[in-house]
Every structure is written in C-alpha cells, then in structure tokens.
Design a protein that fits this description.
By secondary structure, this protein is an alpha+beta fold. It has 2 domains: 96 residues, Hypothetical protein ph0010, domain 1 (Glycoprotein, Type 4 Pilin, 2-Layer Sandwich); 63 residues, Hypothetical protein ph0010, domain 2 (Dna Ligase, domain 1). It is built from 3 helices and 8 strands, in the order H-E-E-H-E-E-E-E-H-E-E. It has a 4-stranded antiparallel beta sheet with strand order 2-1-3-8, with helices on one face. Strands 4-7-5-6 form a 4-stranded antiparallel beta sheet. Helix 1 crosses helix 2. The longest helix is centred in the N-terminal third of the chain and has 15 residues. The two termini are 13 Å apart.
Amino acid sequence: MKPQELARLTVETYIKSRKKPALPEQLSGVEIKKAGCFVSIKTKDNDLRGCIGTIHPTEDSLIKEIINNAISASTRDPRFPEVVEEELAHLKYSVDILHPPEIATSFEEFDPKIYGIIVTSETGKKGLLLPNLEGVDTVEQQISICQSKAGMHPREKFSLQKFKVDRYSE
C-alpha cells in the first residue's frame, strides 16, 4: 500500500465508522520506518480541504504517523469543518514524509520548489510550510506565510530551518 492510499483508506474508514483501519505490514516504495509527515486533503478542484502533520515522529512507525495525521487532517484542521461521508468520493490525498530539518545560514540555501521551511520566533511560535506549493515561488513568500501561520508579527525576529520531503500524491 502506498502512503497516499493509506491516507485515503484511513479517512474513509474513520469518517464512515469512527475506527482506524487495520495496519498494513509495510508501505510500498517507502524505506523510512519512522518520520514526521503531513497529510493533505484536497478537493478534485485542488482546493485545500485539510492538512495536518508532525515535524518529528510522534509514533513508533510511519504507518501510525500517517494514520493519525490523516484522521486529524479530516477532522481537526481548525480552518475547515470535519469531512463528511458525502465528500469522500471527491477528495484526493497526498502524504509528505519529512526529512530531518536543517538549520539554514543564508537565503541562497533556499529554494521553495525543493525545501519547505520552519520559522521559529524568539518566543517559540512556529510556522511550517511544505515545499513546492502552487503560487509560492519565493523564499519571502514562504517566510511571510509561515509567520502568519505562527501568529508572528512580520518584524518579529526568527530563526529558519529547511527540510526536504518525499511526496506521495494521488
């Protein structure tokens, strides 16, 4: 089973029965056994419908990480109402498996098509943006979006980390 197929199965099972699916033995094409990940749910028109994830693993396996984040993306994203059964046939899923974040020392190291970023304020507020998102073409856009997500003032001091992902999409 591919990561995006597990995300779909999880959401469909959970929305219909409030139960988690049986754990597959492994994910096809994925060698990483434990990592943070984000599950994104979009409509067929490519409108975001939910996205929740973890920067670092919180579970003892990537499979459990995907299952928990898929349930959260479909039921707990504060930007959207919970997914309902009538929507399920019209949704598509992607899973981003995060590589460990690295501290970045200069803007030249960043490329929004390759690297996601994490912005952390001096007071501990954190915002994350995945790489290669439609309409996000510059590091400045990434930083601005991350600051907004974190509830930071644009002039607030912050540190930057970058990370790559392995993306699995329908």
